[in-house]
Amino acid sequence: MKVSSKGEYALRALLVLGHEQGRVVSIQEISEKTLVTVHYLEQLLLQLKKLGYVSSKRGAKGGYFLHKTVEQINIGEVIRDLEGPLSPMACASITKYEPCPLEGSCQLKPLWSLIRDTIAFVLERTTLGDLLENRLTFLKGDDFVVFEKPD
User: Which H/E stretch holds residue 144?
Assistant: First the structure.
């Protein structure tokens, strides 16, 4: 899995809207706060709107606002919706599995599956609210610690 600029910029826009819950935010303001061009944001916000994460208001005081609460916006879902599967290799993907001719004897597939599961574990347990409040999942030794700040 690789998060492209599309995924990163969409998350930046969602964070701006999350900071401004209950307020319609102009695309110009989102652009200034995310350092993403208005033209690219128009495309991203349209996609986020079609996916049900944001809504828009037309007119002079128009702009965008969150369609869901920050706790309802799951980062794993957003990334999957925008970027596709979380697996680093198609042979280890659950949603977009593609067979490999070496699969029967492949010693790498368990590694790719572990990476997929670890990425999914973190992203699926993280909401936009967690990012806004800096409640992140992180590794502490060999364990995952959820909703604490690192030492």
Answer: strand 143-145
> Which tokens hold the place of 72?
């309802």
2: left (phi over 0), alpha (psi -120 to 50) or beta: beta
5-66 belongs to CATH 3.40.50.10710: no
**C-alpha Rg value of the chain to the nearest Å:** 18
Q: Is pTM beyond 0.90 here? A: no
Query: How deeply is 101 buried, as exposed, middle or buried, from its count of CB atoms within 10 A (0-12, 13-18, 19+)?
Result: exposed
Residue 147 zone, left/alpha/beta (φ > 0; ψ -120 to 50; rest)? left
User: What is the rounded average pLDDT for all residues in the chain?
Assistant: 87
Residues of the chain with CATH 1.10.10.10: 5-66
